[in-house]
Every structure is written in structure tokens, then in C-alpha cells.
Amino acid sequence: MSEWYRLDNAGKVFHAVSEPANSSVFRISTIMKKTVQSEKLQLALDKTIKRFPIFAVKLRKGAFWDFLVDNKEKLYVQLESQYPCAPIDPLETNGFLLRIIYYKKRISVEFFHSVTDGTGALEFMKALVYYYLVHLGEEVNYESVLIDIHNEQSYYERDDSYQNYVTNEKTVMAKEISSYQIRGVPIDQTITIHGRMSAGKIHQLAKKHETTITVFITAILIAAIYKERLKYRAYKEEIKIAIPVNLRSLFPSNTLRNFFGVVNIGMVVTESTTLEEIIRETSKQLQEKVQKEILQQSINDRVKWQTRLTARFIPLPLKYYAIRYGYRSFSERTKAMTLTNMGMVRFSESIDPHISHMEMVMYPTKKSPINGGMIAVGDELVITFARMIQEADIIRTFFKELSKTYNLEIEVYSNDNR
């Protein structure tokens, strides 16, 4: 008998809002030192997907909510042939909600966000790379603080941690005001621009400003958006960056499913605002908002809102309509861009010599047509922007500011072959 799983709180939202202009598909890539051998990667995938049964699933229609059920079909690796983060067609993947892609030295894993978040996807990628190297005959070890891939999936790995941590505490969520929104000429593909630099030097720059890498990069991004879009406008709207927060760091959990929150950080910038002031305000807001009590309220609010939809006899299409309305009103309109920081990825010392660097691509949407992702391994930090508009002015100014102002060497490369 097939096992089935409820979509978690965030999974229902991503399922409801996904469409061609909002694929809800994100990508994590590992760039190896040598060209990828597809047959060895397929063997590695066969081994990895067995260890992650929570990801070997397909979507099924339900009476009250759609749900996930075991998928016994075979998942095949694919030579990269389309733009990053394209919607996943079940016919293309035998019903699976992820795809494994290779191109030259790059191994990419793309997940539909209803299945997992960046943390879960990263565990899958680390296991895939480990088994790939094993099949190449390399002597490597696997290390992870979240799971043990040499044992079967634990109960905790499939936990819906939103439900576990919801409390009866009354939520008092402040109404989020809208943000400046980036606009441009839409294009029908996702262009990615990557900036590869020294993680150590960025850390030193952030430290010099007495802050973290996330705050430092967010502040430069806010300054770049102001310079390119708001400097010569009479009405100065607040520029907000949405930053995903891994809830596992505050609410202990080993789940491989979605378990993250989002905080919006921003301010009104004027001609007289200095970068130091933006850094101070960004740091202050991030410290205030990434507090357990604040994020607990966020969990309660999100879970109870969906519980109310479940308790009432509301046809499923109307539930999804309500979720889409809430997403547009309370999520998309309250940010200019999302910037997700996957942090420093740690493989075992035996695997490190086989890896060049990594990339994280956060899919853009119609209302948020440029999104950013950061990921580091060793001393290699890559900041990636994915856009679905023609204009690259904000991205160009961001990298220019980093390289010229701070005398930082950045290798910028793109998939834009138009």
C-alpha cells in the first residue's frame, strides 16, 4: 500500500500559487572539478532517492487538500536543455516533483517548493554528490549534522514541524506595509547572473562594518535598488528585501520538509542616506525580527489561517483562491526582492577537493522579477540573481558597488545567450 503525506503549511501555499510566471521551483548546483559522467550520476541518483523517500513522491488530488503519495517510477538524470527553475512537468519527470540536471561540470537539483526547502534540498545534494563520487571510485566520507544517510529515514525527517510548534498563543501580527516593487520588460525565460568571490574577503568586509554577511549584502542591494530606480522619483517608497529564515535554528527539528519563515527588512532611502545608515538599520531590523517570539507568532498565524480554511466546508478551488489572494496581498506586495542565504556548506574533507563552487538560484516571479541567492563552500562564495525582465541595471550596479568600492575581485558569469 502506498504511503501518503499531507502537504505542509508552506507546501500548500507553493502548490496554490504556482503558475508559468511563478514556478515555485528553486535550484541548488554543485560545480565539480571534472566533467560530470551521466551514467555515474544516474547510479548516484538511484541510491540517493531511495534514502530520501519523502522526496520520491507525486501530487494527488484530494477532497479537502491535495496530498503527496509515494512514486514508484524511476527518476532519470537529464542533460540541461531549458532555462533554470522552469516549471516541473510531471510528464518530464515521471511524476516526481524534482529534476536532476547535469551540464559539463555542473550538477543541479531543482525542487518544487511544496516538497522541501533549501535545507532539505541541500541534504539531498550532499548525498547525491557523495554517492556520485563513490561510483567514480573515490574514497570519500559523508558528513551531516541533520541526517545519517547510512540508516533508513527517521520519523523526524518527514515531520511537519509547523504543526508541531504551533501554539494556542493569540497572534498579534503587525500589518506589513507595501514595498517598492521592481518593474521591467518581461521576458519568457529566467536569466541567471552569478558573481563568484572570496567568502573570506566578504566576511572581513562585513566584520569591518561590525555586521554579518547577510546584513552587508542586503544593505548594498537596497542601495543599488535606490540608485537605479528611486533616486530621481519624488515619492520615496520603502525598499524591502524578504529574507528567508531557517526555523530549525530556533525550533529544534530534523525535518527534510519545509520549515522556514520570512522576515522583510527595509527602509526609505533618500539622497542623504549613507550606506553605513542602511547597514545599521538593516542589522537592527534583522536582530529584532529574527527572535523566537516573533517567529512563533508567524508560525501560529500561518497555521491557524490554513486551519480555519480546513475546518470550514469550503470547496478546494476556493481554498486555493483564498491562498493566492493572501499571497499576493501579504507576501508579494511587501517586498522588492527575496534574498536567501544558504550560508557555508560543509562537505567532508575527503569531498572538498572534488568541488569547485556552488550556486543557489531563487526563482523570480511576476511581482518579484529579480530574486537573489547566496551559497558558499570553502572560500568560494557565489551570489546569484535570477531575473525574468530585460533590465539588469540593479544587478550590474550591485556587483559594480562590491567590486569597485571595496576593491573586490568578482568573476561574473551568466546563462544569457540571447
Automatic annotation (TrEMBL):
Which top-rank group of organisms is this from? Bacteria
**What are the recorded GO MF terms, alphabetically?**
acyltransferase activity
Q: Which UniProt keywords apply?
A: Acyltransferase, Transferase
A Pfam family recorded for this sequence: AATase
Record InterPro entries: Alcohol_O-acetyltransferase, Atf2/Sli1-like, CAT-like_dom_sf
Q: What is this protein called?
A: Acyltransferase
* Species for this entry: Ornithinibacillus sp. 4-3
